[in-house]
Description:
Elements: H1 5-9, H2 12-31, E1 41-42, E2 44-52, E3 65-66, E4 72-75, E5 82-86, E6 93-99, H3 105-112, E7 121-126, E8 132-136, E9 141-146, E10 151-154, E11 174-180, E12 183-188, E13 194-199, E14 205-209, E15 223-229, E16 232-237, E17 242-247, E18 252-258, H4 260-264, E19 279-285, E20 288-293, E21 310-315
Parallel strand pairs: 1-18, 2-6
Antiparallel strand pairs: 2-21, 3-4, 4-5, 5-6, 7-8, 8-9, 9-10, 11-12, 12-13, 13-14, 15-16, 16-17, 17-18, 19-20, 20-21
Amino acid sequence: xxxxxxxxxxxxxxxxxxxxxxxxxxxxxxxxxxxxxxxxxxxxxxxxxxxxxxxxxxxxxxxxxxxxxxxxxxxxxxxxxxxxxxxxxxxxxxxxxxxxxxxxxxxxxxxxxxxxxxxxxxxxxxxxxxxxxxxxxxxxxxxxxxxxxxxxxxxxxxxxxxxxxxxxxxxxxxxxxxxxxxxxxxxxxxxxxxxxxxxxxxxxxxxxxxxxxxxxxxxxxxxxxxxxxxxxxxxxxxxxxxxxxxxxxxxxxxxxxxxxxxxxxxxxxxxxxxxxxxxxxxxxxxxxxxxxxxxxxxxxxxxxxxxxxxxxxxxxxx
Length: 318
């Protein structure tokens, strides 16, 4: 059989590879999802409140948890304890009220077996049994409170399987926590953002993964909080100014929602000199995203003397 010049010029294996490549390219152009469907969409601000601390001192609101009865809880990133956010019937001033006997320093000291100089609590979570969780960033500890018996314990967690992701910076560890699907999720904030997965029954680390916005990801993910809602893990990416909806089984981003325009709004934003945002608390419920701003003692654009943190209630686009 006569061979053409092109067939004589190229080996048969190269022709086969070219044929396979053409087939994959053609098939891929049909089956690949449209990347525009995963584009980040903006959240719409519905309401905003200033959070007034119980004392004049600076308050670093570093988490947000919504209980089944609608109660909103947060923590102070500089000390032990949990605070209830009391929303007003009218106006934009909400009060922060300390919750007695919940993750207070004496209970944490007893659970740890030794007193600590301070507790930099970050993240709040609740499991289906009603038990509450909080993580301490610098010490990489996780505490659990059982309201039925009023007991607080330090979970015996071994981080060896994920040790390689940890930074030597004590201020770059657990920043968020969520419970759902029989698992506990912890956000290793930076310098290598990583979400660590713990089996709630055995308390064994079962794996870890990372997710980022589908378009123009930031230099670092800066995970600053986690939330479990509607069978999905929601991830707050502070440096990318967005919230990710994540399939916890496939560990993939399903949707991305931006709040960057709210941070830049002169009425609601802060005089932020840093390259990343201030949002550090996340709660998702009934088609809405609630965000808590830890402004690090910095004033708002509209009122530089107002050093209070903020709570934003946003609508998820249809």
